[in-house]
Amino acid sequence: MNNQIKHAKGDRILLLTNNILLTIIVLAIVGPLLYVFLSSFLEPNAIIRKGLALSSSDWSLEGYKRLFTDDTIVRGFFNSLLYSTGFTIVTVLVCLFAGYTLSVDGLVGKKVFMIFFLFTMFFGGGLIPTYFVIRDLGMLNTIWAIILPGAVNVWFIILARTYFKAVPNELKEAARIDGASDLKIFFRIILPLSKPIIFVLALYAFIGQWNAYFDAMIYLDDRELHPLQLVLRSILIQNEVQPGMVADVEARNELMRISEMIRYSSIVIASLPLLIMYPFFQKYFEKGVMVGSLK
Amino acid sequence: MEELVKAEQTIPVGKPAATSKLSRNLTYIKKNYILYLLIAPAVILTIIFKYIPIYGATIAFKDFSPIRGIAGSEWVGFKHFISFLTSPNFIEILMNTIKLSSFELLIGFPIPIILALMLNQLRKSSVKKNVQLALYAPHFISVVVVSGMVFLFLSPVGPVNVILSTFLDKPISFMSDPDYFRSIYIWSGVWQGAGWASIVYVAALANVDPQLHEAATLDGASLLQRIWHIDLPTLKPVMAVLFILAAGGIMGIGFEKAYLMQTPMNSPSSEIIATYVYKRGLLAGDYSFATAVGLFNAVVNVILLGVVNQVVKKLNEGEGLV
Q1: DSSP 3-state assignment of A201?
Q2: CA end-to-end distance (rounded Å), chain A
């Protein structure tokens, strides 16, 4: 009993410290995001320099206006939409099908298939041989170079298999007795039951593709085909503000000031849609992580 | 199952003992061909985009000539490997790769665990949910945007230097100083990923029976003691699996962010094997050499995964990944 009282005080201090630390962590996470958002409507460093002395005249939409004087970012947006949608459809179908087959009890060759897929998670030919294959297939500068090479996601297959395994066998047996074929069972019984896993995989696939830039950088030379992330990369990392956005600006200082504003607003344009949407999907994302952590 | 696989692989067609098994398998496949049709797209895509490149990696042992193709190019054995291992930047690139990823592991691995233990102390579930929501947010931002934010914040005229200018005479060029690269890379990674990585641990902690904590409190255990003796052991199996995967990936450290954050000035610490392969191979056209470097990396990676798996197995009472 004594100990309990002695500890109670220490525990309270510990919990208080915990709350304070978590508050600091949340601020450290949200702060930079909020800073970028506010800065996209302000002169560079206005927040730091003026703080609370900001007046209404400091706010402007110039960054956004300039961002849209050039069609690069809009084109990138629609390219990304196309690539992500196409990729999501293909990868979800391919992985669901494979996952279903691997979930069937007594499948002949199951172990061979598993080794066949798992091996690719740990060893591969590397960047250049893969590039050669895609080049030789004539897929450079086509949407297929974005969609097909990454379509087989071993992780997705395992997730789907785990999910299908949980579907009661009696359901399949009953359908089989009624004379349904394997194909019919899959499309009429299994798939309708699998909406949650389809949704989880689709979200993962879409967001992964939306935020990726590497494959597009290697396989798409044509600027017209560039997805949003590559456009952002040239604006944010390579400091190449599209000439169309600043055609009328001559002075060097002015150019720097405006490019800075364009950068902040491009981050907001690119990130806001997902940041607004993810809270609604959060429980699905968590579910995906959970299913995946089952061994 | 094991026997089945062996049977398929080793027993030649026609031997009486095998025929029955083989024909039984064949009947199964014939009867359930739909299943094999469903898995076919995944198999075909994997062969084309994963296994054919492994064959293509043989150019690491050849002098690749675009005219003669992969098969026609001349064999040169380990020439490219030796030239990489003896090249003046070999040690630097190897050490950069190892340092960047092992520091990332040392800092990035425990933080999500600590975060989960901290979140677990929040009693009000509405508060906990909102805190988690905030912690997950950066995960949904692309690596290009995160790198872009880093460049904006840390540029010589950016907000960080404006604040520092009250203490310092001249701005710090964070992005062109090799000394800062690793810290920037790792801490921006923690900022982006730690919250998301804590999900698995938070879920594991939610499965702890509250009665355990109550009983321990009655027995006079302090909060820290309960975390140490109840919460941490719960997390151990998850930690083991995730650690093997993370440590096995040390040589496979991501290309995407390192390449974005690389500037000509910070390359003494930011040039890692993956970025080197890209530059030497696709940008400079030194195909065979770059493939050899990539292959060296892949092989080291596989060995590392095996070793770490064994070590963790020993430490974790026989429980490893494979």
Answers
A1: helix
A2: 42
Question: For residue A79, what are the contacts with CB-CB under 8 A and spacing of at least 6?
Answer: A225, A226, A227, A228
Distances (CA, A) of B228 to B134, B218, B236: 27, 16, 11
Judge whether B211 lies within some domain: yes
Q: How many other β-carbons are positioned within 10 Å of the β-carbon of residue A288?
A: 22
- pTM value surpassing 0.90: no
Residues 6+ apart with CB under 8 A from A44: A257, A260, A261, B157
pLDDT digits (tens, 9 = 90+) for A11-67: 889 899 999 999 999 999 999 999 999 989 987 777 777 776 677 777 888 888 888
Which residues numbered 159-218 in B keep a CB inside 8 Å of some CB on A?
Answer: 159, 162-163, 191, 195, 199-200, 203, 217-218
Q: What is the pLDDT of residues B55-80, one digit of tens each?
A: 999 998 988 888 888 888 888 889 99
In terms of CA atoms, which chain A residue is nearest residue B145? A267
Least Cα separation, residue A172 to chain B (angstroms): 14
ipTM value for the complex = 0.87
Helix-strand-coil split of chain B, %, nearest 5: 75, 0, 20
In the CATH scheme, what is the code of domain A65-293?
1.10.3720.10
Average pLDDT, integer, range B83-103: 90
Are B140 and A274 within 8 A, CB to CB?
A: yes
Six-digit token pair at B221? 């255990």
Domain CATH for B118: 1.10.3720.10
Q: Domain extents for chain A? A: 2-63, 65-293
Measure CB to CB from residue A129 to each of B56, B199, B248 and give the nearest one: B56
Among A182-196, B64-78, B284-298, name the most confident range.
B284-298
**Are A98 and B158 in contact (CB < 8 Å)?**
no
Measured CA to CA, the distance from residue B81 to residue B87 in angstroms comes to: 10
